[in-house]
Amino acid sequence: MIKVGNELIGHKLTNDSTAELSINQVYFNQTLSKVTYVEVHKREASNYKDAVPDHHSSEMLHSIEASGGQFTPDNYPVTDDDRKAHDANGSMIVSYDSLSWEQGSLSLMDTEKEVQSTILVDQNSFAALNKAEVLTEEGKELGKVKEVVINQHGLVEGLELSEGLFTDLLKSDQPFLELNESIQFEHGKVIVPDKYVEKISK
Predict the structure, then answer these.
(1) For residue 80, what pLDDT band results from cuts at 50, 70 and 90?
(2) End-to-end CA distance of the chain
(3) Would you say 9 and 22 are in contact if contact means Cβ atoms under 8 Å apart?
(4) Bridge partners, 189 (sequence order)
(5) Average pLDDT, stretch 58-76?
(6) Which residue, among 7, 72, 13, 79, has the nearest Cα to 43 in the 3D structure?
(7) What pLDDT is attached to residue 77?
C-alpha cells in the first residue's frame, strides 16, 4: 500500500528526457475511488554552473553582451541558455495511468502525454482532502484525514484518520476508514453513513 502524502508526493520520476521530474500534487475522481491525475514538477537539468559576474571587468561584460547575453539591474548575466532552462521548468498534468511502477520506482516514459489543467475542474486534490473533517451524516466528528492510502494501480484503499495531535503521538496505529461508494466528499468534508462508523478499524 502507498501513502499519498508521505510516499507519492515528492516522489521523483524516472524518464527518458533530460528533465528532473517529481510529483507535486495528486488528484482523485469525485467518488474518491481512484487516483486520476498527478501534477508533475519539471526542472530541466543544467549542464552549466551559474556564472558569477565580475562587476569590475568591463571586458567580461562586453564579451557576454556580444554573445547575446542581457543584464538585469543588478548586473546578473541572463543568457539564452538561462531563458531556455527557465522555459523548460514548470508543472504539467499527466494521467496516473501514464505512470509505471517498477521495483518501487515510478517512471514516466512519455513526457508528451501532458493534458490541459482544465481537466481538473471536477477532480479532488490531496491538498483539499488533507486535514479535511470526517463526519457522519448526523454530524458526529470522527477525526480528520491524515493520509490517503492507495495501491499501485491508483485505487484508493481508504483514509487514515487523525484523532488529534496528542492522541497521534501516543498511538502507533491510526483509525483507518475503508472507502466505498457510500462515502462522499462535499464542501471540503468527508461524509460517511452513520452505520459505517463500525467499519473504522484501529
Answers:
(1) low
(2) 16
(3) no
(4) 133, 186
(5) 56
(6) 13
(7) 53
- Average pLDDT (54-70) is 56
Query: Phi/psi of residue 184, each to 5°?
Result: -125, 150
Residue 54 pLDDT greater than 50, yes or no: no
Residue 157 CA, chain-centre distance (Å), reads 19
What's the residue count for the chain?
Answer: 202
Q: Kindly report the pTM of this predicted structure.
A: 0.73
Place of cell 486535514: 131
- 105/17 Cα distance (integer angstroms): 16
Burial of 94 (0-12, 13-18, 19+ CB in 10 A): buried
pLDDT above 70: residue 119 = yes
3-state SS, residue 30: coil
Distance CA 169, CA 165 (A): 6
Residues 6+ apart with CB under 8 A from 29: 36, 123, 124
